[in-house]
Specification:
heterodimer, A: about 500 residues, mainly alpha, two-stranded antiparallel sheet, B: about 350 residues, alpha+beta, 4-stranded antiparallel β-sheet
Chain lengths: ~500, ~350
């Protein structure tokens, strides 16, 4: 039956022709390659939970009186967006779980993209021929942050509403076109009535389509280039060493999808996120205290706080102060990220195809540069909590703010040489980064001591093996060869060295 | 494993150690078909009993047990999730059962893939991306020559088509951009405060001169724009009983100890909602800009670049607080078309 069905499909789509190629795709076995998978899987969680949420969310700013099950809000006039979000959290079966999973998955999505990019950056995975994929990935990061902000804004609660107000101000701050952009996006002066429905359709349709397309391109290029890989274990610039898609990575990556989803579900169950019923409906004249945006907007919030009150005035025109932290800074940052592969190729003077990844210590300049940028953004992230820190540590706001202003400059200046030096020292230390070996100290009969270094793979750790060509391997017979042994598999003997 | 064949040699797959492996596998049990017993590393035959084809687990039975347990846990937890959904259980029970089920399922699957499948490593060749000069020039030539033949004879058509396409491109952009909203207009420069507008609380009640205690604050709007995001104004009663003078030319703006400022922060537009009575300062909770009321809401700390615009007030014969006029400069954050530090030329000197 299945044979017949497959035959029918195969006759029309020629699946069998070239199918082996797909089954054989080799994935290098390295833990750091799964970070990007987390991003992919959390995006799938976002799609699935998002489809659930979109069935219940009403994208409208019109007023309704809340009559739901949450007693403290009853009788209040709220927007339909807020009303439907509270209702889908409390009155729809599994609604709160889906909403919290969606929000957690968004945080994980952006987070895993950042960590994945850091892995690619620090190991040189962006070098030729992968520059285009690096740029696609950078675009995905930007879109993920933007769409996270849009989704966060949809419930029309007090905290996210304030964020929308800041977004309007930031748009307005762009020279020449800023006010036009802001008025066109919001359908007029702030706040207008168009923003919730517009953010909604951008968040649930336009952005996901673009992100989906770019993910397709990202993975397509991954297949075309094949995975980059770390050197060692027979890996060269002309091969890929690891395990095949079928069956190894189908199981490992497929299982990892469920691990990611499971963790997201546990977070959605046990760790409350964005309880908008506590914040209340957004009104333009109301505001809450000690609020922070989602983590991936923190650096922007911090930058808005630490930026001194400088404005540039021309006759009849001006550049507002928030232009610098909210437009110029992200603009410079992302353009630097886009340009880095080309800058580095220029700096190094070589631009050959590179499929072998590097240890961060082997490129001190790149590693130090990356660490410096990260350090700067960590400080900005911390600066988004100036008010909370001042309260918590009983310090004056003035002191905390000035501390962060100084740290913004000092920390990167310190981090660069320190990271550079650490790289050099690690490079100069023989055996660093290698598997640890046990040293056995032996006392001889006449009282002398000698140190015996154990073999590289002590105990039960299996040795590294030479790679076997997947194209000439008959995995089927390998896996069935001795199926009638008592445990059905070969064993590697313990004394095997 | 006393009868482990020679394939256990770590270099059994390498060229130098592979000669014994050319012969088909015969490990005594004789069940391995000879044709399947040999395979190749880059052309060199390799025994399938080579360690690359063995599973990674040293004790597969135990791993099988763990995987089975994981799937059983998953099965049970999925069942609990279904039941919990059926009875509309608490979010915790729903989420934890779902999470445990998914995690256990994933754990089982990953363990299976990691420990119970051929451990490898395997390799496949990687083509270089760079295209040879010849390949490229052939392709480019094909493209160019075919195109040239097709277009050159009809260059007039091509030009007209290009012109039509360009116009289409421009015209298509119109509705996408221009229909979205009105152009920035007077709302950038003016609010709905007018001469004589009563200072009205959100509940619609006009504020009278005795309504607020000393040190009190209230958010007020023009009566025709209650809740207005741009006209929102914070009214403060200071301890003075006479007029509050916050600057030159503002001698009459603060009658009976009352002053009113735009509540929209000049930094990023948040409502400046926190009033510190002791120091007579307003704090914006978003980015902690601090404004000194007595100097006309001049920013004394934080990222705000300009003072909050002040609303000139007067008290009418019935004791109602009213606006003398709109703010004398654009409220809120800066924008390109806003003039110098004191507002746009468009709104200069409109006071009375």
């Amino acid at each position: 039956m299945i044979d017949a069905l497959y035959g029918w499909v195969d006759d029309r789509l020629a699946v069998s022709r070239g199918g082996r190629h797909l089954l054989d795709k080799i994935f290098p076995d390295h833990w750091s390659f799964m970070i990007g998978e987390i991003a992919l899987y959390s995006f799938i969680v976002l799609l699935v939970t998002g489809i659930f949420l979109v069935l219940y969310f009403v994208p409208s700013g019109s007023d309704v009186v809340y009559h739901g099950v949450y007693a403290p809000l009853r009788g209040q006039t709220v927007s339909e967006a807020y009303n439907s979000t509270v209702n889908l959290s409390f009155s729809v079966r599994g609604g709160l779980l889906m909403r919290q999973m969606h929000h957690w998955a968004a945080n994980i999505f952006v987070g895993s993209i950042v960590v994945h990019m850091a892995r690619v950056f620090f190991t040189g995975g962006f070098r030729r021929p992968r520059e285009i994929n690096w740029m696609v990935g950078t675009t995905l990061l930007i879109l993920a942050i933007l769409n996270g902000f849009l989704g966060y804004s949809l419930p029309d609660d007090l905290i996210s509403g304030t964020g929308i107000r800041i977004a309007f101000s930031v748009l307005e701050a762009i020279p020449f076109v800023g006010t036009y952009l802001a008025y066109f996006l919001f359908g007029g002066a702030y706040p207008g009535t168009a923003i919730i429905p517009r953010f909604f359709i951008i968040h649930v349709l336009i952005m996901p389509l673009i992100i989906l397309g770019l993910i397709g391109a990202h993975l397509g290029m991954l297949v075309r280039h094949k995975h980059a890989q770390f050197p060692g274990g027979g890996a060269t610039n002309e091969n890929v060493v690891g395990s095949p898609l079928w069956p190894n990575y189908a199981a490992k990556a497929g299982g990892f999808f469920f691990l990611t989803t499971g963790i997201t579900a546990l977070l959605g169950a046990a760790v409350q996120i964005n309880p908008i019923w506590q914040y209340g409906q957004y009104y333009a004249y109301k505001v809450s205290y000690a609020v922070q945006p989602d983590w991936y907007m923190g650096w922007l919030d911090g930058a808005l706080r630490v930026m001194p009150a400088w404005e540039i005035h021309f006759p009849g025109h001006m550049i507002p102060t928030i232009f610098f932290p909210a437009i110029l800074l992200p603009g410079l940052t992302f353009n630097l990220i886009y340009a880095w592969p080309f800058l580095e190729a220029k700096l190094r003077g070589t631009n050959d195809e590179q499929h072998l990844l590097e240890s961060p210590r082997d490129q001190p300049l790149r590693t130090a540069a990356g660490a410096t940028v990260f350090a700067f953004y960590f400080v900005l992230f911390g600066a988004s909590a100036t008010d909370v820190l001042a309260n918590y540590l009983s310090l004056s706001l003035n002191f905390v703010l000035w501390t962060f202003r100084i740290l913004c400059i000092v920390v990167p200046i310190v981090v660069f040489p320190v990271a550079y030096k650490i790289c050099l020292e690690l490079k100069a230390t023989p055996g660093s980064g290698k598997r640890k070996r046990h040293n056995i100290i032996v006392r001889s009969a006449d009282g002398g001591y000698t140190t015996v270094v154990t073999p590289e793979y002590p105990g039960y750790v299996q040795p590294e093996l030479e790679p076997v060509s997947i194209e000439s391997v008959d995995l089927v017979s390998a896996m069935t060869a001795d199926s009638d042994r008592d445990d059905g598999v070969y064993r590697i003997p313990r004394d095997y060295r | 494993m006393p009868d482990e064949p020679e394939g256990t040699d770590p270099h059994g797959s390498g060229p130098e150690g592979s000669h014994e492996d050319v012969t088909p596998q015969s490990d005594g049990s004789g069940h391995v078909p000879a044709s399947h017993g040999v395979t190749h590393v880059m052309g060199t035959p390799v025994s399938i009993s080579a360690p690359q084809f063995q599973v990674a687990a040293r004790n597969p039975k135990r791993v099988e047990g763990v995987v089975a347990l994981a799937f059983v846990v998953s099965l049970g937890a999925f069942g609990v999730f279904g039941g919990a959904y059926w009875i509309n259980a608490d979010n915790y029970i729903l989420g934890i059962s779902l999470g445990v089920a998914l995690f256990a399922f994933g754990f089982g699957l990953v363990s299976w893939g990691k420990y119970l499948m051929p451990r490898g490593p395997f390799e496949e060749p990687r083509p270089q991306m760079a295209v040879s000069k010849q390949e490229r020039s052939e392709f480019v030539a094909d493209f160019a020559v075919r195109g040239k033949v097709a277009i050159e004879r009809r260059s007039f058509l091509a030009k007209i088509m290009g012109a039509a396409g360009a116009v289409l491109g421009i015209v298509v952009a119109f509705p996408l951009i221009r229909s979205l909203g009105p152009k920035p207009d007077e709302s950038l420069y003016h609010t709905s405060w007018r001469k004589g507008a009563k200072l009205t609380a959100i509940d619609g009640k006009a504020v009278q001169v005795d309504d607020i205690d000393v040190g009190g604050v209230i958010t007020v709007f023009p009566p025709n724009d209650l809740g207005g995001a741009l006209s929102q104004t914070i009214l403060i009663r200071l301890k003075q009983s006479g007029p509050v003078v916050t600057g030159k030319g503002r001698e009459t703006w603060g009658p009976h100890g009352y002053v009113a400022f735009s509540k929209v922060c000049t930094h990023a537009g948040c409502p400046v909602g926190l009033y510190e009575e002791l120091t007579e300062e307003l704090l914006c909770p978003c980015h902690q800009s601090l404004f000194n009321i007595n100097t006309g809401a001049l920013p004394v700390f934080g990222p705000a670049p300009r003072p909050l615009p002040q609303l000139p007030l007067y008290v009418d014969s019935k004791g109602y607080l009213r606006a003398q006029a709109d703010f004398d400069e654009p409220i809120g954050p800066g924008f390109w078309y806003r003039g110098g530090s004191n507002g746009s030329p468009k709104v200069n000197g409109h006071l009375q």
